[in-house]
Amino acid sequence: MPVTNRPTTSSSPFELQPLVEFTRTINSSFDIDFILNNILFTLMGKLRFTRGVIFLREEHNIFRVAKVKGMHEIKEQETTQISPEPITEISVDSLDEQTFPWLTRLQRMGISHIQDLTVQNKLIGIVCLGKRIGDTTFTASEEIFFRSLVNISATAIQKTAILEELKEANRNLDYKIQELNTLFELSKEFSSVIRHDQVVKVLIFSLLGHLGTNRYLICVDNNGQCEVIASRLPVKEVKQEVLHDLMKCTKPEIITEITGMFQPDTFRCLHEYDINLVVPMARQGITKGIMLLGKRMTAVPYTQKDLEFLSSLGNLAMTSLENMQLFEEMLEKQRLEEELKIAYEIQQGLLPKTLPTIPGYQIAACTIASKQVGGDYFDVVQLGENRYLLVIADVSGKGTPAALLMANLQATIRALAPLDITIADATSRVNDLIYDNTSADKFITFFWAILDAKENTLKYVNAGHNPPYYFRADGSLHRLEKGGMILGVLRSVSKYEHDVISMKSGDLFVLFTDGISEAMNRQLEEYGEERLEELIREKNGEPAQEILDSIVRSVQQYADPTNQSDDITALVLKAQ
Q1: What global pTM score does this model have?
Q2: What is the distance between the terminal CA atoms of the chain, rounded to a whole angstrom?
Q3: Which element (helix H / strand E) includes 276?
Q4: What are phi and psi of 280, to 5 degrees?
Q5: Is 259's pLDDT higher than 70?
Q6: 40 and 156 share a domain?
């Protein structure tokens, strides 16, 4: 529609006074609704229009109906696509529909005049007006008034938008500060508790208090299994497959917005249990647990801010749970170390500090403890003039229980040794006492012998122990196997057998535990009794202490020191 060219002056009251009043009015308020109403009312009143609409830009080519007057074809808050191309013409009829294809809809609604809302060459909206009363054309002064008012309006709208953005930023900042304060207080709560269940309780109270959620399930990864640590769902148990599927979640997800992430059975369960939200509990970016949350009790939907808070809360709780686990593991480790220390002290207290001097014989013995306190035991007890008791044993198990059983064994031996009974009968009594006072999983391999240094005899009983080596001076080898079953397995149903050997000058007697024969190298190959036998043959002519040192040295050189899981114990007796 052409514009009539009429001479005007810049001081025309039509141009200046209404613009001054309009500028004063819209700059007096930061209410966008008030500003938009005044724009349309002023334009429609001063220029005699009966309908108008203002579009404000949401993003690139999406515009929202911000204000509409006198039109039923379009409603506020609707969005439409409008190409953000500059518009220089006021009249819609003057614009090319191919360049501005979106004008077709506006024309159908009776829009005849249009003007960009532009600030610093940035399009922020469009003002559209219908036909004028009387269908008259703009005069030059009316056109100037129209353009000037729209330009002033654009500045006011932009100012209000900036202020709203600032307010929103301040609101977000206040919320973040409040959220950080809340998380800080919760972190203090988490840090103040000392038990796993207390951490879970703080987490549940946070969900109930801050979000009003009373339906939840919380589970954590426990060595590949999803362990439910808290639940308020209408079912006793959730399938492991479902929980493992949910563990794939890496960020908070609203169930209605998830597409293709989970298996159909998982979706079915979530809807059946009325779960609205899945929140991962991560540690160093790895999901270690999940929280499943139902609707709020207020039925208010979860917001993006809620998701951010829940994500931080879940990660904080997961960190606390893992720290608690590490703390409990540290306490358990300290307890075990203290127990091992006690067991070691018991074990060392039971072993002889010095060995007696036996006329006509050399004797040497030692035990080298492994990293774990084992149950190796040896003893040399003088029973009377020229009579000596030699003992070696291996108690099953490790730690304090093994050390206590060793103490029980020593007390029994010391009590029975002075009695006037045979070594075979004494062995039966030892077995029955051990059986009566220990659990079924405890047993002892045991060997003992009575050396008569005057008669040069050695009377022995072997109760399931590694048969000692007896090398005669002529080089022949005998293994001392006579005896019976391991101690503590069954009550004595038959007598233990004993045997007597006559010792001559140069004879060698070597007792050892399986810590020597079963010592392993880095290839997990055992040292073996054959290697031990060859070494003893090679060193047979040496003194007892040198033979013992050679055995220990050979085993230690062969075995992987990081793999020693059993004590190394040996006793060497040699007739002079």
Answers
A1: 0.52
A2: 135
A3: strand 275-283
A4: -75, 150
A5: no
A6: yes
